[in-house]
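Q: Can someone sanity-check these two? First one:
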Amino acid sequence: MKFAGKTETGLRPQNEDRYLLLHTDTLDAVAVSDGMGGHQAGEIASRLAVETLEDMLLSNHADPESALSSAFAEANRAVHERASLNDEMYGMGCTLVAAILEPEHFTAANIGDSRLYHFDGSGIRQVTHDHSFVAELVRRKAITPEEAKTHPRRNLITRAVGTETRVSADIFRCDWKVGDMLLLCSDGLCGVLDDAELAAFLRNSDDLDEACSLLIRRALAAGSRDNITVVLAKNDGGNA
Protein backbone atom coordinates (compact mmCIF):
# COMPACT_ATOMS: atom_id res chain seq x y z
CA MET A 1 0.00 0.00 0.00
CA LYS A 2 0.99 3.61 -0.54
CA PHE A 3 -0.14 6.31 1.90
CA ALA A 4 -0.12 10.08 2.10
CA GLY A 5 -1.78 12.60 4.38
CA LYS A 6 -1.92 16.34 4.90
CA THR A 7 -3.80 18.68 7.20
CA GLU A 8 -4.31 22.44 6.93
CA THR A 9 -5.59 24.86 9.57
CA GLY A 10 -7.20 27.07 6.93
CA LEU A 11 -9.10 30.08 8.26
CA ARG A 12 -9.69 28.62 11.71
CA PRO A 13 -7.59 29.82 14.68
CA GLN A 14 -6.35 26.28 15.39
CA ASN A 15 -6.35 22.87 13.75
CA GLU A 16 -8.69 20.38 15.44
CA ASP A 17 -8.20 17.70 12.78
CA ARG A 18 -5.93 14.67 13.18
CA TYR A 19 -4.99 11.84 10.86
CA LEU A 20 -3.26 8.47 11.05
CA LEU A 21 -1.08 6.54 8.61
CA LEU A 22 -0.25 3.20 10.22
CA HIS A 23 1.99 0.54 8.69
CA THR A 24 3.49 -2.55 10.34
CA ASP A 25 4.49 -5.95 9.01
CA THR A 26 0.95 -7.19 9.62
CA LEU A 27 -1.27 -4.10 9.51
CA ASP A 28 -2.03 -1.18 7.21
CA ALA A 29 -4.57 1.35 8.48
CA VAL A 30 -5.55 4.99 7.95
CA ALA A 31 -7.85 7.37 9.82
CA VAL A 32 -9.12 10.97 9.99
CA SER A 33 -10.75 12.74 12.93
CA ASP A 34 -12.34 16.20 13.18
CA GLY A 35 -12.67 17.60 16.70
CA MET A 36 -15.40 19.77 18.16
CA GLY A 37 -15.66 21.70 21.40
CA GLY A 38 -14.38 24.97 22.87
CA HIS A 39 -11.16 25.84 24.72
CA GLN A 40 -9.04 23.51 22.55
CA ALA A 41 -11.28 20.60 23.55
CA GLY A 42 -11.83 19.66 19.90
CA GLU A 43 -8.10 19.29 19.35
CA ILE A 44 -7.85 17.14 22.49
CA ALA A 45 -10.79 14.97 21.44
CA SER A 46 -9.46 14.23 17.95
CA ARG A 47 -5.92 13.58 19.19
CA LEU A 48 -7.14 11.25 21.92
CA ALA A 49 -9.45 9.38 19.55
CA VAL A 50 -6.74 8.79 16.95
CA GLU A 51 -4.13 7.79 19.52
CA THR A 52 -6.56 5.36 21.16
CA LEU A 53 -7.55 3.93 17.78
CA GLU A 54 -3.90 3.35 16.90
CA ASP A 55 -3.12 1.66 20.23
CA MET A 56 -6.15 -0.59 19.96
CA LEU A 57 -5.44 -1.65 16.37
CA LEU A 58 -1.84 -2.45 17.22
CA SER A 59 -2.83 -4.63 20.17
CA ASN A 60 -5.93 -6.31 18.70
CA HIS A 61 -5.34 -9.14 16.24
CA ALA A 62 -9.01 -9.98 15.69
CA ASP A 63 -10.67 -9.79 12.29
CA PRO A 64 -10.83 -6.23 10.86
CA GLU A 65 -14.54 -5.72 11.63
CA SER A 66 -14.12 -6.71 15.28
CA ALA A 67 -10.87 -4.78 15.61
CA LEU A 68 -12.42 -1.57 14.30
CA SER A 69 -15.58 -1.97 16.36
CA SER A 70 -13.55 -2.44 19.54
CA ALA A 71 -11.18 0.40 18.70
CA PHE A 72 -14.01 2.85 18.06
CA ALA A 73 -15.73 1.84 21.30
CA GLU A 74 -12.52 2.40 23.25
CA ALA A 75 -11.90 5.75 21.52
CA ASN A 76 -15.39 6.83 22.52
CA ARG A 77 -14.82 5.74 26.12
CA ALA A 78 -11.49 7.58 26.29
CA VAL A 79 -12.86 10.87 24.95
CA HIS A 80 -16.02 10.71 27.06
CA GLU A 81 -14.02 9.95 30.20
CA ARG A 82 -11.60 12.84 29.58
CA ALA A 83 -14.53 15.24 29.01
CA SER A 84 -16.17 14.18 32.26
CA LEU A 85 -13.06 15.14 34.25
CA ASN A 86 -12.89 18.78 33.13
CA ASP A 87 -15.74 21.27 33.00
CA GLU A 88 -14.08 23.15 30.12
CA MET A 89 -14.12 19.94 28.07
CA TYR A 90 -17.74 19.06 28.82
CA GLY A 91 -19.50 17.96 25.64
CA MET A 92 -16.35 17.71 23.55
CA GLY A 93 -16.25 15.11 20.82
CA CYS A 94 -15.04 14.34 17.35
CA THR A 95 -15.77 12.53 14.16
CA LEU A 96 -13.73 9.45 13.29
CA VAL A 97 -13.36 7.53 10.05
CA ALA A 98 -10.84 4.72 9.60
CA ALA A 99 -9.98 1.79 7.38
CA ILE A 100 -7.93 -1.39 7.67
CA LEU A 101 -6.38 -2.22 4.30
CA GLU A 102 -5.84 -5.67 2.83
CA PRO A 103 -4.78 -6.60 -0.73
CA GLU A 104 -8.28 -7.52 -1.93
CA HIS A 105 -10.51 -5.88 0.69
CA PHE A 106 -10.70 -2.86 2.92
CA THR A 107 -12.78 -2.59 6.06
CA ALA A 108 -13.97 0.89 7.04
CA ALA A 109 -15.76 2.38 10.03
CA ASN A 110 -17.12 5.82 10.80
CA ILE A 111 -18.86 7.98 13.36
CA GLY A 112 -19.80 11.52 12.35
CA ASP A 113 -19.47 13.22 8.98
CA SER A 114 -15.82 12.74 8.06
CA ARG A 115 -15.91 10.59 4.96
CA LEU A 116 -14.27 7.70 3.15
CA TYR A 117 -14.48 7.50 -0.64
CA HIS A 118 -13.46 4.62 -2.94
CA PHE A 119 -11.99 5.62 -6.32
CA ASP A 120 -11.70 2.75 -8.81
CA GLY A 121 -9.86 4.60 -11.57
CA SER A 122 -12.92 5.95 -13.31
CA GLY A 123 -15.58 6.84 -10.75
CA ILE A 124 -15.76 7.71 -7.07
CA ARG A 125 -18.19 6.39 -4.46
CA GLN A 126 -18.81 7.58 -0.92
CA VAL A 127 -18.61 4.44 1.22
CA THR A 128 -19.46 5.90 4.61
CA HIS A 129 -22.77 7.51 5.59
CA ASP A 130 -22.72 10.94 7.23
CA HIS A 131 -24.18 11.10 10.72
CA SER A 132 -25.53 14.62 10.38
CA PHE A 133 -28.83 16.48 10.41
CA VAL A 134 -28.70 17.44 6.73
CA ALA A 135 -27.62 13.95 5.64
CA GLU A 136 -30.73 12.57 7.30
CA LEU A 137 -32.85 15.16 5.50
CA VAL A 138 -31.27 14.14 2.19
CA ARG A 139 -31.86 10.44 2.90
CA ARG A 140 -35.54 11.25 3.57
CA LYS A 141 -35.59 13.35 0.36
CA ALA A 142 -36.68 16.39 2.38
CA ILE A 143 -33.87 18.41 0.77
CA THR A 144 -31.51 17.87 -2.16
CA PRO A 145 -27.74 17.32 -1.82
CA GLU A 146 -27.26 20.79 -3.31
CA GLU A 147 -29.53 22.35 -0.67
CA ALA A 148 -27.63 20.48 2.05
CA LYS A 149 -24.44 22.41 1.20
CA THR A 150 -25.97 25.72 2.30
CA HIS A 151 -28.46 24.52 4.91
CA PRO A 152 -28.20 26.60 8.13
CA ARG A 153 -27.88 23.41 10.22
CA ARG A 154 -25.39 21.65 7.96
CA ASN A 155 -22.79 21.48 10.76
CA LEU A 156 -25.06 19.66 13.19
CA ILE A 157 -23.67 16.17 13.90
CA THR A 158 -26.10 13.49 15.07
CA ARG A 159 -23.47 10.94 16.16
CA ALA A 160 -20.00 11.70 17.49
CA VAL A 161 -17.15 10.10 19.41
CA GLY A 162 -17.17 11.04 23.09
CA THR A 163 -20.45 12.90 23.51
CA GLU A 164 -22.35 9.87 24.85
CA THR A 165 -21.40 6.97 27.10
CA ARG A 166 -21.77 4.54 24.21
CA VAL A 167 -21.94 5.03 20.47
CA SER A 168 -21.94 2.58 17.57
CA ALA A 169 -19.75 2.83 14.50
CA ASP A 170 -20.99 1.90 11.05
CA ILE A 171 -18.80 -0.86 9.56
CA PHE A 172 -18.25 -1.48 5.84
CA ARG A 173 -16.31 -4.29 4.13
CA CYS A 174 -15.58 -3.67 0.45
CA ASP A 175 -13.56 -5.14 -2.38
CA TRP A 176 -10.84 -3.16 -4.10
CA LYS A 177 -8.13 -3.91 -6.63
CA VAL A 178 -4.63 -2.83 -7.57
CA GLY A 179 -4.73 0.79 -8.71
CA ASP A 180 -7.76 1.73 -6.63
CA MET A 181 -7.53 4.54 -4.09
CA LEU A 182 -9.27 5.51 -0.87
CA LEU A 183 -9.81 9.13 0.11
CA LEU A 184 -10.50 9.95 3.76
CA CYS A 185 -11.27 13.55 4.61
CA SER A 186 -12.81 15.99 7.04
CA ASP A 187 -15.72 18.15 5.95
CA GLY A 188 -13.37 21.04 5.25
CA LEU A 189 -12.75 19.23 1.95
CA CYS A 190 -15.94 17.38 1.08
CA GLY A 191 -18.08 20.27 2.27
CA VAL A 192 -16.92 22.38 -0.68
CA LEU A 193 -15.79 19.94 -3.40
CA ASP A 194 -18.29 17.62 -5.06
CA ASP A 195 -17.67 14.02 -6.13
CA ALA A 196 -16.86 14.96 -9.73
CA GLU A 197 -14.13 17.35 -8.63
CA LEU A 198 -12.66 14.79 -6.23
CA ALA A 199 -12.62 12.12 -8.93
CA ALA A 200 -10.96 14.46 -11.44
CA PHE A 201 -8.10 15.17 -9.04
CA LEU A 202 -7.57 11.49 -8.24
CA ARG A 203 -7.78 10.45 -11.87
CA ASN A 204 -4.92 12.76 -12.82
CA SER A 205 -2.66 12.35 -9.79
CA ASP A 206 0.05 9.71 -9.58
CA ASP A 207 1.85 11.38 -6.67
CA LEU A 208 -0.23 10.97 -3.51
CA ASP A 209 1.54 13.71 -1.56
CA GLU A 210 1.00 16.15 -4.40
CA ALA A 211 -2.64 15.10 -4.72
CA CYS A 212 -3.25 15.82 -1.02
CA SER A 213 -1.74 19.29 -1.38
CA LEU A 214 -3.67 20.04 -4.57
CA LEU A 215 -6.97 18.96 -3.03
CA ILE A 216 -6.41 21.20 -0.03
CA ARG A 217 -5.46 24.17 -2.20
CA ARG A 218 -8.55 23.63 -4.33
CA ALA A 219 -10.79 23.46 -1.25
CA LEU A 220 -9.33 26.73 0.04
CA ALA A 221 -9.87 28.36 -3.35
CA ALA A 222 -13.46 27.09 -3.35
CA GLY A 223 -14.13 28.91 -0.09
CA SER A 224 -13.52 26.34 2.67
CA ARG A 225 -13.24 28.12 6.01
CA ASP A 226 -12.68 24.99 8.10
CA ASN A 227 -9.67 22.83 8.92
CA ILE A 228 -8.99 20.57 5.94
CA THR A 229 -7.53 17.07 6.24
CA VAL A 230 -6.90 14.63 3.40
CA VAL A 231 -5.57 11.06 3.54
CA LEU A 232 -5.01 8.98 0.42
CA ALA A 233 -4.28 5.25 0.30
CA LYS A 234 -3.48 3.43 -2.94
CA ASN A 235 -3.59 -0.30 -3.52
CA ASP A 236 -0.36 -0.99 -5.36
CA GLY A 237 -0.31 -4.70 -4.62
CA GLY A 238 2.61 -4.31 -2.21
CA ASN A 239 3.56 -2.85 1.13
CA ALA A 240 3.23 0.75 2.27
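And here is the second, same format, sequence then C-alpha coordinates:
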Amino acid sequence: MKLSKKIFENLKKKNINFITIDGITCSGKSLFANLLKDNLKKKFKYVSILSKDLFLFPRSKRIKITKKIKNSKFNQNNLHYDLKKLKILLNFLAGKSKSKTLILKNLYDRKSGKNNLKLKINYIRNRLIIFEGIYVNQDIKLIKKPILRVLLIEKVYNSLSRKIQRIRDRQISIQSVVTEFVKIHLQSFKKYLLNNNFDISFIDQNRKFQKIKDGRNKQLKEIISFLKKHMY
Protein backbone atom coordinates (compact mmCIF):
# COMPACT_ATOMS: atom_id res chain seq x y z
CA MET A 1 0.00 0.00 0.00
CA LYS A 2 1.36 3.39 -0.97
CA LEU A 3 -0.09 6.35 0.89
CA SER A 4 -0.01 9.86 -0.49
CA LYS A 5 2.94 11.77 0.98
CA LYS A 6 0.70 14.82 1.34
CA ILE A 7 -1.47 13.00 3.90
CA PHE A 8 1.30 12.37 6.42
CA GLU A 9 4.08 14.82 5.50
CA ASN A 10 3.10 17.33 8.22
CA LEU A 11 3.14 14.90 11.15
CA LYS A 12 6.47 16.15 12.46
CA LYS A 13 5.62 19.80 11.84
CA LYS A 14 2.45 19.44 13.91
CA ASN A 15 4.36 17.50 16.59
CA ILE A 16 1.98 14.56 16.22
CA ASN A 17 3.20 11.40 17.95
CA PHE A 18 -0.11 9.53 18.26
CA ILE A 19 -2.09 8.14 15.33
CA THR A 20 -5.33 6.33 16.16
CA ILE A 21 -6.83 3.82 13.73
CA ASP A 22 -10.47 2.97 14.34
CA GLY A 23 -13.22 1.13 12.51
CA ILE A 24 -15.89 -1.53 12.93
CA THR A 25 -14.76 -5.05 13.76
CA CYS A 26 -12.74 -6.84 11.05
CA SER A 27 -12.28 -3.66 9.02
CA GLY A 28 -8.54 -4.13 8.55
CA LYS A 29 -7.19 -2.00 11.41
CA SER A 30 -4.22 -4.27 12.17
CA LEU A 31 -3.34 -4.59 8.50
CA PHE A 32 -3.59 -0.83 7.98
CA ALA A 33 -1.44 -0.16 11.07
CA ASN A 34 1.36 -2.40 9.82
CA LEU A 35 1.24 -0.91 6.33
CA LEU A 36 1.28 2.58 7.80
CA LYS A 37 4.27 1.73 9.97
CA ASP A 38 6.17 0.57 6.89
CA ASN A 39 5.36 3.89 5.22
CA LEU A 40 6.49 6.01 8.17
CA LYS A 41 9.49 4.20 9.62
CA LYS A 42 11.88 6.06 7.31
CA LYS A 43 10.59 9.39 8.61
CA PHE A 44 10.51 8.51 12.30
CA LYS A 45 13.31 6.87 14.28
CA TYR A 46 10.90 5.07 16.62
CA VAL A 47 7.52 3.83 15.39
CA SER A 48 5.48 1.41 17.52
CA ILE A 49 2.08 -0.23 17.05
CA LEU A 50 -0.18 -0.57 20.07
CA SER A 51 -3.06 -3.01 19.55
CA LYS A 52 -6.09 -2.55 21.76
CA ASP A 53 -6.84 -6.27 21.44
CA LEU A 54 -4.17 -6.79 24.10
CA PHE A 55 -6.63 -5.39 26.62
CA LEU A 56 -9.57 -7.65 25.82
CA PHE A 57 -11.01 -9.60 28.73
CA PRO A 58 -10.55 -13.40 28.52
CA ARG A 59 -12.48 -14.95 25.66
CA SER A 60 -14.48 -17.17 28.04
CA LYS A 61 -15.67 -14.10 29.94
CA ARG A 62 -16.75 -12.33 26.75
CA ILE A 63 -18.67 -15.41 25.59
CA LYS A 64 -20.60 -15.47 28.88
CA ILE A 65 -21.40 -11.77 28.51
CA THR A 66 -22.70 -12.31 24.99
CA LYS A 67 -25.00 -15.14 26.07
CA LYS A 68 -26.57 -12.94 28.77
CA ILE A 69 -27.31 -10.00 26.47
CA LYS A 70 -31.05 -9.42 26.10
CA ASN A 71 -31.10 -5.88 24.67
CA SER A 72 -28.81 -3.42 22.93
CA LYS A 73 -28.28 -0.91 25.76
CA PHE A 74 -24.66 -1.85 26.33
CA ASN A 75 -21.30 -0.18 25.81
CA GLN A 76 -18.98 -2.67 24.14
CA ASN A 77 -15.90 -0.75 25.24
CA ASN A 78 -16.81 -1.27 28.90
CA LEU A 79 -18.07 -4.83 28.41
CA HIS A 80 -15.10 -6.32 26.57
CA TYR A 81 -11.97 -4.36 27.52
CA ASP A 82 -9.84 -3.88 30.61
CA LEU A 83 -9.87 -0.09 30.36
CA LYS A 84 -8.10 0.41 33.71
CA LYS A 85 -5.05 -1.49 32.49
CA LEU A 86 -5.16 0.34 29.16
CA LYS A 87 -5.26 3.70 30.96
CA ILE A 88 -2.08 2.78 32.84
CA LEU A 89 -0.28 2.19 29.55
CA LEU A 90 -1.60 5.33 27.86
CA ASN A 91 -0.56 7.48 30.83
CA PHE A 92 2.87 5.90 30.67
CA LEU A 93 3.22 6.61 26.94
CA ALA A 94 2.09 10.19 27.54
CA GLY A 95 5.00 10.66 29.95
CA LYS A 96 2.88 10.81 33.10
CA SER A 97 4.87 8.15 34.94
CA LYS A 98 8.08 8.57 36.94
CA SER A 99 9.27 5.14 35.84
CA LYS A 100 10.94 4.69 32.44
CA THR A 101 9.84 1.07 32.09
CA LEU A 102 6.36 -0.45 32.32
CA ILE A 103 5.48 -4.14 32.60
CA LEU A 104 1.91 -5.38 32.08
CA LYS A 105 0.85 -8.99 32.56
CA ASN A 106 -2.15 -11.15 31.65
CA LEU A 107 -2.78 -9.46 28.33
CA TYR A 108 -4.91 -11.06 25.61
CA ASP A 109 -3.38 -13.31 22.96
CA ARG A 110 -5.58 -13.28 19.85
CA LYS A 111 -4.09 -16.57 18.59
CA SER A 112 -4.81 -18.62 21.73
CA GLY A 113 -7.80 -16.69 23.07
CA LYS A 114 -6.15 -16.61 26.50
CA ASN A 115 -4.79 -13.80 28.67
CA ASN A 116 -1.23 -15.00 29.04
CA LEU A 117 0.83 -12.31 27.30
CA LYS A 118 3.33 -10.03 28.98
CA LEU A 119 4.29 -6.57 27.70
CA LYS A 120 7.44 -4.69 28.63
CA ILE A 121 7.82 -1.23 27.16
CA ASN A 122 10.37 1.53 27.63
CA TYR A 123 9.44 5.20 27.52
CA ILE A 124 10.84 7.06 24.51
CA ARG A 125 9.97 10.74 24.25
CA ASN A 126 9.87 11.05 20.45
CA ARG A 127 8.27 7.70 19.65
CA LEU A 128 5.41 7.67 17.14
CA ILE A 129 2.57 5.50 18.48
CA ILE A 130 0.09 3.92 16.06
CA PHE A 131 -2.82 2.92 18.32
CA GLU A 132 -5.23 0.58 16.53
CA GLY A 133 -8.51 -0.89 17.73
CA ILE A 134 -12.19 -0.24 18.36
CA TYR A 135 -13.15 2.93 20.28
CA VAL A 136 -9.52 4.13 20.51
CA ASN A 137 -10.68 7.69 19.80
CA GLN A 138 -12.54 7.55 23.10
CA ASP A 139 -9.65 5.98 25.03
CA ILE A 140 -7.11 8.50 23.79
CA LYS A 141 -8.97 11.49 25.24
CA LEU A 142 -6.67 11.44 28.26
CA ILE A 143 -3.73 12.17 25.93
CA LYS A 144 -3.24 15.92 25.57
CA LYS A 145 -0.67 15.76 22.77
CA PRO A 146 -1.65 16.32 19.10
CA ILE A 147 -3.32 13.24 17.60
CA LEU A 148 -4.18 12.22 14.04
CA ARG A 149 -7.48 10.30 14.10
CA VAL A 150 -8.00 7.79 11.29
CA LEU A 151 -11.27 5.95 10.55
CA LEU A 152 -11.44 2.86 8.33
CA ILE A 153 -14.69 2.32 6.44
CA GLU A 154 -15.97 -1.18 5.70
CA LYS A 155 -19.16 -2.70 4.37
CA VAL A 156 -21.10 -4.17 7.28
CA TYR A 157 -21.72 -7.49 5.53
CA ASN A 158 -18.00 -7.92 4.86
CA SER A 159 -17.26 -7.19 8.49
CA LEU A 160 -19.75 -9.79 9.72
CA SER A 161 -18.50 -12.39 7.25
CA ARG A 162 -14.91 -12.02 8.48
CA LYS A 163 -16.07 -12.14 12.09
CA ILE A 164 -17.84 -15.46 11.46
CA GLN A 165 -14.73 -16.84 9.76
CA ARG A 166 -12.72 -16.08 12.92
CA ILE A 167 -14.77 -18.50 15.05
CA ARG A 168 -12.20 -20.91 16.52
CA ASP A 169 -14.27 -23.67 18.07
CA ARG A 170 -17.69 -24.79 19.31
CA GLN A 171 -17.59 -22.65 22.44
CA ILE A 172 -19.59 -20.05 20.56
CA SER A 173 -22.10 -20.58 17.75
CA ILE A 174 -22.55 -18.59 14.56
CA GLN A 175 -25.88 -17.37 15.94
CA SER A 176 -24.17 -16.03 19.08
CA VAL A 177 -21.59 -14.23 16.95
CA VAL A 178 -24.34 -12.62 14.87
CA THR A 179 -26.25 -11.65 18.03
CA GLU A 180 -23.17 -10.00 19.51
CA PHE A 181 -22.42 -8.23 16.22
CA VAL A 182 -25.93 -6.79 15.87
CA LYS A 183 -26.97 -6.15 19.47
CA ILE A 184 -23.63 -5.13 20.96
CA HIS A 185 -21.08 -4.14 18.36
CA LEU A 186 -23.10 -2.25 15.76
CA GLN A 187 -25.28 -0.52 18.34
CA SER A 188 -22.27 0.59 20.38
CA PHE A 189 -20.24 1.65 17.37
CA LYS A 190 -23.15 3.65 15.93
CA LYS A 191 -23.37 5.70 19.14
CA TYR A 192 -19.61 6.06 19.16
CA LEU A 193 -19.51 7.44 15.61
CA LEU A 194 -22.23 9.95 16.44
CA ASN A 195 -20.12 11.34 19.30
CA ASN A 196 -16.66 11.35 17.73
CA ASN A 197 -14.93 13.07 14.84
CA PHE A 198 -12.02 11.89 12.69
CA ASP A 199 -9.33 13.72 10.75
CA ILE A 200 -9.16 11.37 7.80
CA SER A 201 -10.96 8.26 6.52
CA PHE A 202 -9.95 5.36 4.32
CA ILE A 203 -12.13 2.75 2.66
CA ASP A 204 -11.09 -0.88 2.36
CA GLN A 205 -11.46 -2.09 -1.23
CA ASN A 206 -10.26 -5.67 -1.52
CA ARG A 207 -7.74 -5.04 1.29
CA LYS A 208 -6.43 -1.91 -0.45
CA PHE A 209 -7.09 1.35 1.36
CA GLN A 210 -8.08 4.57 -0.39
CA LYS A 211 -8.79 7.98 1.10
CA ILE A 212 -12.49 8.87 1.23
CA LYS A 213 -14.43 12.02 2.11
CA ASP A 214 -17.09 12.16 4.85
CA GLY A 215 -16.21 8.64 5.99
CA ARG A 216 -17.92 8.83 9.36
CA ASN A 217 -21.34 9.65 7.91
CA LYS A 218 -21.00 7.05 5.16
CA GLN A 219 -20.22 4.37 7.77
CA LEU A 220 -23.15 5.52 9.87
CA LYS A 221 -25.51 5.16 6.90
CA GLU A 222 -24.18 1.63 6.29
CA ILE A 223 -24.77 0.63 9.92
CA ILE A 224 -28.22 2.22 10.18
CA SER A 225 -29.33 0.56 6.93
CA PHE A 226 -28.13 -2.83 8.17
CA LEU A 227 -29.86 -2.45 11.56
CA LYS A 228 -33.18 -1.45 9.99
CA LYS A 229 -33.12 -4.61 7.91
CA HIS A 230 -31.84 -7.08 10.50
CA MET A 231 -32.49 -5.77 14.03
CA TYR A 232 -34.65 -8.15 16.03
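A (reply): Looked at the second one. The chain has a mean pLDDT of 86. The radius of gyration is 18 Å.
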